[in-house]
From TrEMBL:
Keywords: Cell membrane, Membrane, Transmembrane, Transmembrane helix, Transport
Pfam families the record matches: BPD_transp_1 (PF00528)
Membrane-related topology note: Multi-pass membrane protein
Presence of the UniProt keyword Membrane in the record: yes
PROSITE patterns: ABC_TM1 (PS50928)
Residue intervals passing through the bilayer: 12-34, 66-87, 99-121, 146-168, 189-213, 247-269
Localization terms from the record: Cell membrane
Keyword Glycoprotein found: no
Phylogenetic placement of the source organism: Bacteria, Pseudomonadati, Pseudomonadota, Alphaproteobacteria, Hyphomicrobiales
Residues in ABC transmembrane type-1 domain copies: 62-266
Gene3D superfamilies the UniProt entry points to: MetI-like
Protein name per its UniProtKB record: ABC transporter permease
Amino acid sequence: MLQPRMARLLLLPGYALLALTLIGPLITTLVISLGRRAPSGGYETALSIENFASVLSRSTAFLNTVQLSAFGAAICILAAIPVAFFIAKHLKGSVRYTVLFLVVLPFFTSFVARTYAWYFALGGRGLPAVLEWIGLGRFRFLNTDFAVAIGIIYAYLPIAILMLFVAFDRIGDDLLEASNDLGRGKVETFFSVVIPLAMPGLISTYSLLFILLSGEYLIPMLLGGGKVYFIGNAIVDLFLQSRNWPLGSAVAISLMSMMIVVAFLSQIFQRMANRDGRIG
């Protein structure tokens, strides 16, 4: 058995990597956010919180991000629940793992390539052309909230399925059988037993999806065409076009702060679910 001192020494490389890749960039971003924009663009040393006051000028981007992230996470969970429950409780052995492999199969291809596939599918020569040929009229999907929502759901649905599969799989079959023996049907058992027991998993899945979607950049850029403006797009524009690095860093720090709040609230709600006896 390892001595405590030896165990701490073995953890040092991991701590060093964490400090280099996570803490270091966060501190750098915070320092830049307290500076000011140089006359020619970029960063100039200063000590000011004016950039954080100017974050409100990007309120539209924050509002779009929160709305579409909340909506996308909710739709992903609603779509994932029946699939994850079916895999967890109705598939066994090699069939279960084959289906799980098919769920994660899209991750074996480039995220950019998959997003571009939707760009062409929702473009004028894709789905709108098919609907017009059928006689349903002319539709425009690209560069709309609908296109961004489709891209978000497609990209993040596998994550929701995997996380909810774990939550449902942890629920013992004996609890479902006991509920059925007490006269409850399958639908009543699902809503009165399965959902309450899986509530902590549902909360953690929603919060993770919301955090991931809040930092999304590529999908709004390609499928939204700049008309659906996420905070990630605002940060890129501030750094690359306006070259206002301090304001861009302040917006990034504000976004990370929002994610931390969401993660903190998620922990609170999960503890409330546990304390209320919703999980055994």
